[in-house]
Amino acid sequence: MTSRHWVVAAGFLASALGLSEASAGAFGIREQSTQAQGLAFAGAAAGSGGVSSIFWNPATITMNPGFVAEQNFTFIGLSSTIRPDVGTNPGFARLGGSGDIGQGAVVPAGATSYQINDRLWLGLATGAPFGLVTKPRQVWAGEVYGRSSRIFSLAINPVIGFKVNEWLSVAAGPNIEYFRLTLRQALPIPGIQPTVYPSSFLKGESWGAGFTAGATITPRDGTVLGIGYRSSVHHDIDGSIGVPLLALAPLAGQVRSKLNTPDKLSVGLTQALSPVARVDLGFEWDNWSRLGTVGIVSKTLGVPVNFLPLNYKDGYTYSVGAEYDASPNLTLRTGFAYETSPIDFSNRSVRLPDGDRYNVSVGASYRWSQALTLNVAYSHFFLNRSRILSGIGRDYNVGNIAFAGVVDSSADLVSVGFRYVFGAPPPPAPAPLVRKY
């Protein structure tokens, strides 16, 4: 395989690292709780997201008495277009823009907590922390950098929580994660017109493991401070490169790469203003800079064949929200968040046209019965117009084909969910037996 073809292969994985522009910086998915989404995720680490808050801080599990289950479904509707600009190779610029690369996707997430006694809780959270689908037009100016992208992840996070006393709770648990991707892009072949370039693909998957931990502090009634941590998960991705023509079959082969997902630190504060009103604050730090440069290794040759200088920056999210109990059965909420993306002009690509964003959200909960509560939320994301430059010394340059583009993006998210309480909380743990001698 020539060095240029290895560069093309390397480009596939570079493209994989970031397909969920709609919901969180780079390729993260924050939509794990309908209730928290209505607050723009403010206070999620302090329990504002119900049982599903254990995604941000497992210690919030001790805020849920009895046996409680939640399930959330979020539709992420991304709209994003890329049009070629001055600097794109003339032969490719005439192919036009990407069209709408956004592909609607439903993200499920669930959480369950079970109180063993007045001190001990067990729980389980499941969800998709990374991924979405993007698909530009088959033939367009940036086709050699991306034709379609599909990424799927699943995290399974059992936790154990302990209420140390009336003001302190702690929790921790393993985080088991599955990661799979399928990527396609045009394969430039000398002598063939760009309009008929065939597509090559990369498929890969991996299992990895990390952990979550956290604590909640309740200094007085009506005030909750939560701090949660999700560790990085190391993935050894096993994959294969496929080519469409028999004559190019020798170019296909097995590759591998090492990817460390970012660790996350979440801080939340919930403060009651009155018996029926609360304000929430949130802060999240995502350590995207740990990705650095990702290497691509040929299994056949056993040596690195290229490097992906992702060089992401750390991501920061700041949020504020408020809740109002309009009646004993109805709670209304709203929130606003600002996120500084780990992606800017220095590392933006057609697969990841990400940028800083503003999130405006509204939501509500309705208590249908003593056991069942229904949740709904809507969010709109405003993203700043951004620019892309690929090729000619940038990112994973493909055959000296330059692409410069302008990106316009926005997103609408609708989430529905429910919370169900099974039976009454268990009785308090018996006091220890005191023997007198």
Description:
- The termini are far apart.
- The chain is elongated, with a radius of gyration of 24 Å.
- The chain has a 14-stranded antiparallel beta barrel with strand order 1-2-3-5-6-7-8-11-12-15-16-17-18-20.
- It is mainly beta and 437 residues long.
- A hairpin with a 2-residue loop joins β11 and β12.
- It has helices at 3-16, 34-37, 90-93; strands at 67-84, 105-115, 120-127, 133-134, 148-163, 168-186, 199-220, 223-230, 234-242, 253-260, 264-274, 277-286, 293-298, 304-309, 315-325, 330-340, 357-367, 372-383, 386-390, 403-422.
- The longest helix has 14 residues, at 3-16.
- It contains three helices and 20 strands.
Describe how the helices and strands are arranged.
Layout: H1 3-16, H2 34-37, E1 67-84, H3 90-93, E2 105-115, E3 120-127, E4 133-134, E5 148-163, E6 168-186, E7 199-220, E8 223-230, E9 234-242, E10 253-260, E11 264-274, E12 277-286, E13 293-298, E14 304-309, E15 315-325, E16 330-340, E17 357-367, E18 372-383, E19 386-390, E20 403-422
Antiparallel strand pairs: 1-2, 1-20, 2-3, 3-5, 4-5, 5-6, 6-7, 7-8, 7-9, 8-11, 9-10, 10-13, 11-12, 12-15, 13-14, 15-16, 16-17, 17-18, 18-20, 19-20
